[in-house]
Structures are given as structure tokens and as C-alpha cells.
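Input sequence (199 aa), recorded before submission:
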Amino acid sequence: MVLDVGCGNGHHLLALAPEVARGIGIDLSPGMIALARARLCNSPWKANLTFEVGNAEDLNGIGDQSVDLAICIGGLEHMLDKRAVLASIYRVLKIGGRFFCLTLNADYVWYRTIAPVLGFGTRHLSSDRVLTHEEFSLLLDQAGFRRTRSVSWTFIPKGDVPTLVALLLTMLDVIGQHARLGSFRGGLSLCAWKDAKPT
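Predicted structure, C-alpha cell format:
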């Protein structure tokens, strides 16, 4: 089973639908779940996907060790208790299961330096909190994940900023890719495995 945590309008789970036998998307917003269900009605994958209103901090209704893959794409920064979210994801993953997350990078030079100097707000919600790679790694370790892999990825909020700023962010990303500077890349891509506990 694939679990999409903070699934929003269902975009990512619907894109994965041809590859999964069963998938469930959960989101705290009833409005987003209504949108996801409406999109599902027009999908050939109605039989293997469901969308439910749910809290990522406890994942009620998802059984222990029932999930092969949990994904969280662009939602973690909006979740208040990230430690509880990651602990719940760890609980529902099968041994050998994976958690994959795309999230914003708090070390990004745009967030740390440029946006404050230019007076740009970088939060979508007042409760948003973006993590550094080190903070995220520590939370994964505390949840029980011992094996992780991470890389930087391109995040350029073109719809959220003026064209010239988007151009600046694009240039920063190109420099970051070529110079291998994570602080010039807007996003973090992390994968963590739930391994069997050592005996």
C-alpha cells in the first residue's frame, strides 16, 4: 500500500495510481479531500485509491506495519508537530518500507538571506516551519529511521514571486547544481527506510 501524507488535491497519488495496487491519501483539509475525490471520480483508478480526511500526527485508521511506501510531497513544512508525524509514519510502515519526502530547504540562501533583505515573505501559512537538512535528519533518527539518503532538488516558486525574482532563483539553482551547493537549491529530497531493529 502507498500512503500519501498531506495529499492535498490528490495530484501525486493519482499520478502514481497506475503503479500501485492500493493507495490512500490523507489530508487535514476537508476541502482538499473533496477536490481529490472529485478528481478520482474521473480516473480509471477509482478501485485502488481512496482519499480520507485525517491528521498526519496520528494517522488514525492506518494499521501498524501496513504501508509499503509513505510519501509527503510539499506538505511537511505546513505540519505543526513534525516529530509526531514522522513517528506515525514509522509506525505504519512495514519492515523494509520507505518514506519519501520532498520539502523546502531552510538552508536555502533565498530564505536565509535574500528574501529578508528584499522584504519578501516566504511562508504560505503563518504556522509554516521549514527544516534544515540536519534538523530533518535528527527527527528521522528520533522516529527510528536509521538508514536515509538525501539530495537537493529544484524548488522555484514561480507562481508565488515576481518574474525577475523567479529568474534570480533559477540562476541560483543552476549555480547550485553545477557547484554542488545545497544552499543554492530550494528543496530537500529525503528517503528513509524502516529496517528491522537489531537484535
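Checked by second reader. The longest strand covers residues 93-104.
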